[in-house]
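Interim report to the steering committee. The following record documents the input for Malonyl-S-ACP:biotin-protein carboxyltransferase MADC (286 residues).
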Amino acid sequence: MTQGTLLSRESFVELGARARAQALLDPGSFRELAGPFDGLVSPWLERQGVVPQGDDGVIVVKGTIGGHPTVVLAIEGAFQGGSLGEVGGAKLAGALELAAEDNRQGIGTRAVILFETGGVRLQEANLGLAAIAEIHAAIVDLRRYQPVIGVIAGTVGCFGGMSIAAGLCSKLVMTREGRLGLNGPAVIEQEAGIAEYDSRDRPFIWSFTGGEQRLATGLADVHVDDDSAAIRAAIAALVAEAPSEDARSRRQDDYLRRLADYEPSSQPEPKTVRKLYAQGTQGGKS
């Protein structure tokens, strides 16, 4: 890649959530719903000494991508680590539910979810967990009608209950900088010890949970450079596809067969994980 090409690229990772959503939509089609001036703030953060944010860290916009009606849901990783509570979770679940209702009314609304989240917000634990469960159900409902595309670009990654949401998406797009895992590195280190998982060892962390590894193990579908135009092109191609019944979440028997062959007595290496996930068939469904 030439220096001129590098200079002409716009980093998607460096954009905030609202700018990321705008970068994906067709020019002139951006319309924000439940925005920062609508007063939808968390009622729980301030009483715990945390300054709330007007949109609760979740951006909901409607527009078109390649002419297709689309709702883009962007989580702001810079606010509380992208954690989800009652309000932000309700915005995500509600938008997905309305998109499914659009389809039942003959309007083919797609959805794109920009994941940048550590999962549930600890200050709103039970409320956040309930909201995330509603998000899961809404993704499964909507993907019957139209593609639900997940994007994990960086810098926070996608962990906790929202990593399950990412796994439920019709297709998942990741950059090299993105990370995907059920438990975050710091949590694993805290519970299992630094000898098991050193959260400060960045090459080690990315070798297991980064975009390249997740693509190689079949847990992501598209790997793209950190470039807004390239990411938009990848998403435009995916939202134009017909909905598929071949979702990863329908292949649990296949994944369980692979994990049954894993010997946990020694720490795995990235190549070991790739070999493990390369076994078995890709077409098993429940």
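The chain has two domains: 9-249, 251-286. The committee is asked to note this result when reviewing the revised timeline.
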